Amino acid sequence: MSATAAVRLLDSVSVGDELPELVYPVTATTVVLGALAARDWRPMHHDKDFAVNRNGTRDIFLNTPNLAAWFERFITDWSGPYGRLQRVTFRMLGSIFPGDTMVFHGVITDTGVDESGCGWAAIDISVSVDGDAKTTCTARVALPRTADDNPWDRRGDRWLP
Amino acid sequence: MSAIGEADIDGMIGVEQYEEEGEFPVERGYVWTTCASVENGNPLFWDDEVADLVTGGPIAPPTMVSVWFRPHHWAPGRTSQGLPLQVHFDLKEGLGLPEAVMSDNTIVFHEPVRPGDRLVTRQILRSVSDEKTTKLGTGRFWVIDVEYHNQRRDLVAVESYTGFGYRRAEIDGSGARS
């Protein structure tokens, strides 16, 4: 059987559309696994004593590269595998600790087609805990314009992220 | 590093520095561990048939690009831990700014990163502001790009970091760090 993959086409996306919310309870394992997956050995991401007594935080906390991986997952859960990230910008506002419940919220802010013919959608995303935004992210993801279009086929002058 | 003057800063802007190759080739073990850490079920990373169909074979999650440059926690003969953004630390030390924060981080993605790739990185200082005072203290903002290329010299990503190096403001009456 040949492989198939879900496709979200650009023309099915409108400004104001919201991505399905992602709610995730963070544990110490979430933090430590994320830090080690990102090869971030710094003790504030696995050693509570260090985090509390040296960093002055209330516990170990998620590291930024792992948060980037969470944002990518949030976007591609919505876009499907044909969605190809073009760019992401993060602004770190606060830390996320074990015991927190992360809530990812995203909304489409713009769509378009670039001069190479590549379709894209812009998304504003925030991850919040108890209603307080901890990190915000703006992202642009390339999406197929037709069932035969695949953003991953683009390179060189045909890929203008 | 000795103190950096204005002329030194001008000479640093746009110059490629600290080119280095990752300590190991891109590999799927870290891809799967990263996907597991965020419960990312994107079939591009788990189903080779889908990866063949969509991306012409397996790739790494684009946001992992900096992972391939974090040094081993220990290696034979190593006497000090490498610093992943050396230009940032050069500016802190050279400008006499003991504290620093990163405010923004942008990543622009180009060619996909694939298992077996050997990536090379280099750092480029893009700008340094005049002295500014914020609630953190007095210092300067800078923007540093980190470029990543694969072994075929294809550009795979550019990360831009906005940093603020500063001297702390006076401690206020509440005892809060400002």
SSE layout and pairing:
The complex is a heterodimer of chains A (161) and B (178).
Chain A (H helix, E strand, L loop, with lengths): L21 E4 L2 H10 L10 H6 L10 H16 L4 E9 L8 E13 L5 E11 L2 E12 L18
Antiparallel strand pairs in A: 1-3, 2-5, 3-4, 4-5
Chain B lengths: L5 H7 L3 E6 L6 H10 L10 H8 L30 H9 L4 E11 L10 E9 L3 E2 L3 E13 L5 E14 L10
Antiparallel strand pairs in B: 1-3, 2-6, 3-5, 4-5, 5-6
CATH topology of chain B: Thiol Ester Dehydrase, Chain A
Please state roughly what percent of the residues of chain B sit in beta strands, choosing from under 5%, 5-15%, 15-25%, 25-35%, 35-45% or over 45%: 25-35%
Task: State the name of the first-level CATH class of chain A.
Answer: Alpha Beta
What fold name goes in the CATH topology slot of chain A?
Thiol Ester Dehydrase, Chain A
Give the helix proportion of chain B (percent range): 10-25%
Which protein chains make the most extensive interface, counting residues with beta carbons within 8 Å of the other chain's beta carbons? A-B, 41 and 40 residues
- What is the terminal-to-terminal distance of chain A? 34 Å
* Uncertain residue ranges of chain B: 173-178
Total domains of chain B: 1
Give me the oligomer status. heterodimer
Whole-number tally of structural domains of chain A? 1
Helix-strand string of chain B: HEHHHEEEEE
Name the average pLDDT of chain A. 95
Largest sheet geometry of chain B: 6 strands, antiparallel
What does this entry look like structurally?
The complex is a heterodimer of chains A (161) and B (178). With 161 residues, chain A is an alpha+beta fold. Chain A has one domain (10-158): Hotdog Thioesterase (Thiol Ester Dehydrase, Chain A). Helices cover 20% and strands 30% of the residues of chain A. Chain A has a five-stranded antiparallel beta sheet, with helices on one face. The mean pLDDT of chain A is 95. Chain B has a single domain, classed as Thiol Ester Dehydrase, Chain A (Roll). In chain B, 19% of the residues lie in helices and 31% in strands. In chain B, strands 1, 2, 3, 4, 5 and 6 form a six-stranded antiparallel beta sheet that branches. In chain B, a hairpin with a 5-residue loop joins strand 5 (137-149) and strand 6 (155-168). The two termini of chain B are 27 Å apart. The A-B interface holds A 2-5, 24, 30, 33-34, 36-41, 64-66, 68-73, 76-77, 81-82, 84-92, 150, 152, 155, 159, 161 and B 30, 33-44, 47, 49-50, 52-56, 61-64, 66-67, 70, 73, 102-112. Strand 2 of chain A pairs antiparallel with strand 2 (99-109) of chain B.
